[in-house]
Amino acid sequence: MARLLQDPSKLHPSEWYTANNMQCASTESQKSRSECMIAESWRLVDEIEKTTQKTQSDVNKKLEQRREEIKFWKQELDNKLGQIVHETEMLLTFKKRLERALEGCKEPLVIAQKCLLYRQRRVGIDLVHDEVEQELVKEAEVLQGIIALLGHTLEQTNEQIRRNRSAKYSLDMDLKDKFTALTIDDYCASLTNDTPHIIYADNAMKLEGNFVSPEDWIDFSNLNVEKADKQRNNSLALKALIDSILSQTANDMRKQCEMVNAAFRNRVKEVKDAKHKLETLLAMVMDETASQEKNIAALKKAIADKEGPVKVAQTRLEARNHRPNLELCYDTVHSSLMSEVQEINKNIQRQDALAQAQEELKALSRRQLSLEEEIKVKENSLYIDEVLCMQMRESVCINNY
């Protein structure tokens, strides 16, 4: 009956309690491990979150620093660009001044050359290399030298403008790149974890393209700034040089122009004085000619007036030669008649005075012609210097450009 009551396939109650205890123990152990794992997971999540936030915050700070750095260099480049643009505009103004000054030299040079050409028309003794001609030649040389100097300075100015524009181009390109980079970094700074349309970009981690070091980046912009500063300083020096050249050349031109004008005034006065003296001499010669003509007329009349007395004396002698015999006496009357005839004949034969007078009259006539010709020479010289040259030179205007 006891065998029937005990089934060998059934477990002992102790085993049941043991199995239940083991299940509890295993479950508690698993639960403990799971709780530890959960705690570790939350700790890890918290640590990762803090690390991510810290890293992202650090990146944001560096991004902000980078933006400020770009803004700084952009401002520097903007300042240098404004300065170089201003200097270029000023240099263009100075270029126009040079061009006007160069153009202003042409008319005085043409006038100086025309004066030299006109004065070649002087004739006779007046065709002289006088002070006026010396000063005119010097004026032409001064003007040609100034034209050459201004032309060379204009070439320097054009070259400096080209260099300024080259520096401006470099600044413009750098500024354009800085603007693009700042726009990109501004966009990056605006991104947050909640910004829509942010994406995964696996290829972003690849360092492709022409990346440069921060030092090279700074050196590049610094080089552009230094280049702009150098060209700006060169422009300032060139402007000072142009100012000096324009002032000095204007003074030189004005001084030489006055030297020429003074030489003209002195020469005209000298020629007028000479002409006045010649006219005085001509009047004197004409008076002397009139006197000599009267003298010749008087001499001729005197000779003619002696014909009667000589005829009377000779007739008396002829008649007394016919006295008869001893009456043909060489008395005092005959002696006086002989002396009278001899004296009159002697005076009549002294026609050399008349010949000399006539020669003097011819000489006076030649002198008159010579003086009249010389006066015409002086009138021609005065017309050239006073009318053609001096009036033409009144149009010469030397300005400070």
Description:
By secondary structure, the protein is mostly helical. It contains 7 helices and no strands. The protein has 2 domains: 39-190 and 217-264, Ferritin (Up-down Bundle); 283-395, no CATH class. Helix content is 84%, strand content 0%. The radius of gyration is 63 Å and the shape is rod-shaped.
- Counting DSSP H or I runs of 4 or more residues, the number of helices is 7
- The SSE order reads HHHHHHH
Average pLDDT over all residues: 88
Name the shape in a single word. Answer: rod-shaped
Largest sheet: none
Describe this protein with a few key phrases.
single chain, 401 residues, mainly alpha, Ferritin, 2 domains, 7 helices, 84% helix, 0% strand, coiled coil, Tektin, cytoplasm, cilium
Produce a short descriptive summary.
The chain has helices at residues 2-5, 13-118, 131-190, 214-305, 307-320, 332-349, 352-393. By secondary structure, the protein is an all-alpha fold.
Strand-helix topology:
Blueprint: H1 2-5, H2 13-118, H3 131-190, H4 214-305, H5 307-320, H6 332-349, H7 352-393
